[in-house]
Design a protein that fits this description.
six-stranded antiparallel β-sheet, 13 strands, 387 residues, Immunoglobulin-like, three-stranded mixed β-sheet
């Protein structure tokens, strides 16, 4: 009586139920069907694994074929599906230059981002940099720029200038770069393990270097350019002094040639020149200035810079007679109305004011003229007789 061939029984375990496939978009659904077809073909092509020498021994030493586990098959399929994604290069790269940096030397880090132009929904968003990248100080950062597009691949770059202040390996931690695609935003990072290799400026065999003493001062020779410059400057200074001295002499000679007229004669000459003045505004302006200049010279005070009210106070303080002081102040106020208020004046009235100015100046001269000695002696005798 022959016993039936031994067949190992597997422990009954519930098979994991595969999740119900969702309904992706049209393109993703087609890719999902292609992967499902490949999976079915792969299951059909994998033969069962033979296992020999199991149980009480069958006829001819034949063993029993055991089907492979479903978990191992699924893992193999996942590895095959993820292989193209793992083989793709990272869209973010960083190049560092130059090599052989010392402490404090500037280094340039160029961050390059590549992406398919057809899949982009906008420009990549580079990191928002602070004052440092890791332990390296950022001393300058350029704005991200699109450097070109070739074969449908667009490239953006940003250049950073870094500076490290300690020797050894200065790590640059990964920084996130967002790439907006039409399917969604992909977040990539700068390569991990990026670092600046910085060497010390002190030779490795010198642990306690002694500073070198300051170099001795060396005399500098004066070249021909110095002497040429000194000679030209000296000549210019001498020429300037000569021109200044000549100008002073010419000005002094010109002033000596012009005779200084007495106040009344100067006023009379200016009034004679006003006879040919056609403009009433200019006539009153020149008349007021001539009369003020006369009062300033005859009664020593700054009459040209004074107002009419100030001139009136000066005349009263000097005890000028009322019949002389009042008409002078009224004439100056009439000139002010024409100068500042643009009062209309007939030509005959203006000529009459010129004549009045001459007459008032003559009255002031008479008032300020010294008295005769005879009149003074008579007054003195009267005082002695009464005393």
């Amino acid at each position: 009586m022959t016993s039936p061939p031994f067949s190992p029984k597997r422990p009954s375990s519930p098979r994991p139920s595969s999740p119900a496939p969702s309904h992706p978009p049209h393109r993703e659904k087609r890719e999902w069907l292609v992967r499902r077809t490949k999976t079915d073909k792969l299951r059909q092509t994998i033969p069962p694994l033979p296992v020999r020498g199991v149980g009480g021994g069958g006829r001819g030493g034949q063993g029993v074929r055991v089907q492979p586990r479903r978990g191992a098959l699924q893992f193999l399929l996942l590895v095959l599906a993820a292989a193209p994604a793992l083989a793709q290069p990272s869209p973010v790269t960083v190049s560092l230059a130059p090599n052989g940096l010392t402490v404090g030397d500037p280094a340039q880090a160029v961050i390059t981002v590549t992406a398919r132009a057809a899949e982009l929904a906008g420009e990549p968003r580079f990191p928002i940099w602070g004052p440092a990248w890791g332990e390296a100080e950022i001393i300058e950062k350029d704005a991200p720029l699109k450097t070109g597009e070739k074969d449908g691949i667009a490239t953006w770059q940003q250049t950073l200038t870094l500076r490290a202040f300690r020797p050894g390996s200065v790590p640059l931690p990964p920084m996130a770069v967002e790439i907006p695609l039409k399917k969604g935003t992909v977040v990539s990072q700068t390569p991990a393990g990026l670092a600046l290799a910085v060497r010390s400026v002190i030779p490795p065999e010198e642990k306690n270097p002694i500073p070198k003493p300051p170099a001795a001062m060396r005399p500098l020779q004066l070249g021909s350019r110095f002497w040429w410059t000194l000679g030209i400057l000296a000549a210019l200074c001498l020429a300037g002094l000569w021109l200044l001295r000549r100008r002073r002499r010419t000005a002094g000679a010109g002033m000596a040639e012009i005779p200084v007229l007495p106040p009344f004669e100067e006023l009379a000459g200016e009034l004679d020149r006003l006879a040919a003045e056609p403009s009433m505004l200019a006539l009153h302006t020149r008349l007021s200035l001539a009369l003020r200049r006369y009062l300033g010279r005859r009664l020593p005070f700054p009459a040209v810079e004074s107002t009419t009210a100030e001139i009136q106070r000066q005349l009263l303080s000097r005890r000028i007679a009322g019949p002389v002081a009042r008409p002078l102040v009224e004439l100056l106020r009439a000139c002010d109305l024409v100068k500042f208020a643009r009062q209309d004046v007939e030509e005959a009235r203006a000529r009459e004011r010129v004549v009045t100015a001459r007459r008032l100046a003559g009255d002031l001269e008479v008032h300020l003229a010294p008295r005769e000695p005879e009149a003074f002696d008579e007054k003195l005798e009267k005082l002695e007789a009464t005393g």
